[in-house]
Design goal:
Chain lengths: ~350, ~350
């Protein structure tokens, strides 16, 4: 869309909700410009707020996924994990959540019961209380079955008040991802029956707070964390280098991707780097601590696939470069839109 | 619906989102049963949470109103006021808010800009920062134009940590409402062109935090506050007496209702007591302080219509009785459903 197109003719497109370039533009040009405050300008997953002498993380997300149930989870589990993870990667211990439901008239009570019970059990696992909520019902045809919003509050672990800004990141720092990427989006593709798959792929949807707390309590030099959801790993890495004086170099061979996910990407023309995840996060750590971080994650994770995928470089600031498996180099740009809408 | 109807055949109805009896049943039987914690069991508009030595209020609401613009406001202003007011009546100073948007593909950018700018200006007036958010876009036809969710955090004013429970309410306490009731629902009726009206009715949609702070700082004996939104004044009064050993008696002649609103109710068969408001709240106060509370509200309010509408009685516990204008008595029950869906 030409930038001089007057606002009278502009409309919201699916890509504005993709988590990619158009979402970032909308946040910049509409929300940050109007709401205009320092927390929002930090552009992190959770706002970090000082109240009295404590630092809190505060975050929200709406979930509009289709279908509501997928291998490995459902919209309820996702809504809890998403908020727990946004708080956790901001260096906070998640404490309390809200849950707000927009329900289409005629929605089966039995499914709502399953979804609410799934939220309750994930909240219990994560150790957060769902303490407040709201229920709205709209006429049949005015929403697609069920949308859930969650917001969450966490208490930032002492010493990690600025981790969401990533100000200490410097060339040489290592980039770690905690396991296989692309599983969540693949599970949605499988649940939508978009491809005839031999075996179903299970979403990685899970609460990351326990593993993140294990890392933080070891006093390691963690410079930054972010979960790679909408827009995938490629988008997060681009957010890290955006307007910074360093770049990122990652190695394709070191990025854990299941064969099945590779096959799906091959057929649909997708890139695993942009596939949505719901239990994956990126850590940027001082090189001296990278081995220990990987060890801690792998002790907590049955897959044991935490991997050092690359590092911060002083060359090509603001850019993410991929050393491909066959020896080439490729720029990983911020995606404009989504490969598949309504996956999280 | 018969209570023995098995869950397999039950479906969500519009009335489950009305704020009335069916909403309360859903909250009880589904949400409180599954999420099961003390904050939720308090059944207040905001959860009151102790973190370290501070008490916080935390609340959320989704807004699905139709139409998006109405005389006196729009969905954006409403989304800010609603959360500010839920925090304020819980005895808290609102500090921070989240804003989450679910937008239908094709929604005009110009309208979104107007709505976001309206949120920004109401937030500025109320003195809260919108610090975090989320944007989802769904395919055309999968939601009705725009839904907004807001969540908010406030710091409870010292001494008011338990006001949301209303534990100190006792017979003889006075019931005050801060002005004309029914204006918001009437403005929506007018915006929907449901009736040919000579002059438009302006919604009472406004942030109540400043007037509530003025009351709280005077050290008066305030026993309880709640804003009368969905379900109106009648619903709030029923919530006050629910499972309690006292009742409420109110006087129709003392309840401020505009002539125009009375006329609309007459024609549509609505009851002003169940009409939704977005800037009205009920206070229960010790009799010695009722005059001063009314004076403080009227100093802040151009209408100067704050009124003492009734009192807590030891007779008919659990019930709300109305002394009608013509000398009769009528039970004001919790409404089963809504007079009009999607008004807030």
């Amino acid at each position: 869309m030409p930038s001089d197109m007057s606002i009278e003719h502009q409309r919201i497109l699916l890509n504005h909700g993709s988590g990619g370039k158009m979402t970032h533009e909308l946040i910049e040009n509409l929300f940050i410009r109007n709401f205009n405050n320092e927390s929002l300008k930090a552009r992190s997953d959770a706002a970090i707020l000082q109240i009295a002498d404590k630092f809190f993380a505060f975050t929200t997300d709406s979930y509009v996924i289709d279908p509501l149930f997928f291998p490995g989870g459902d919209i309820g589990k996702l809504a809890v994990c998403g908020t727990v993870n946004d708080l956790s990667v901001s260096g906070a211990v998640p404490l309390y959540m809200s849950a707000s439901f927009i329900i289409e008239e005629g929605f089966p009570m039995e499914l709502l019961e399953r979804i609410v019970s799934s939220m309750a059990s994930e909240a219990k696992y994560a150790g957060v209380d769902i303490v407040t909520g709201d229920t709205k019902v709209v006429d049949k045809g005015k929403c697609d079955k069920l949308f859930i919003n969650t917001a969450g509050i966490g208490l930032v672990v002492k010493g990690y008040e600025n981790i969401h800004k990533g100000l200490d990141i410097q060339p040489g720092d290592k980039i770690i991802v905690n396991g296989y990427i692309g599983d969540h989006e693949s599970s949605i593709i499988s649940a939508r029956n978009l491809l005839p798959l031999k075996s179903e792929i299970i979403s990685d949807c899970c609460s990351l707070n326990h593993v993140i707390q294990s890392i933080l309590k070891n006093n390691l030099s963690i410079k930054f964390m972010r979960d790679a959801t909408r827009g995938g790993l490629g988008t997060v890495l681009n957010e890290v280098v955006d307007h910074r004086l360093f770049g990122i170099e990652i190695n394709e061979n070191n990025i854990p991707v299941r064969e099945q996910v590779k096959a799906i990407c091959e057929i649909l023309g997708f890139d695993p780097l942009y596939m949505a995840n719901e239990g994956k996060f990126v850590l940027i750590v001082d090189p001296k601590d990278s081995d220990q971080v990987i060890r801690i994650i792998n002790e907590a994770n049955i897959d044991r696939m935490a991997s050092l995928i690359g590092e911060i470089t002083s060359e090509s600031p603001g850019m993410v470069l991929l050393n491909t498996g066959i020896g080439g180099k490729r720029i990983i740009d911020m995606p404009v839109g989504e490969q598949l809408p309504r996956i999280c």
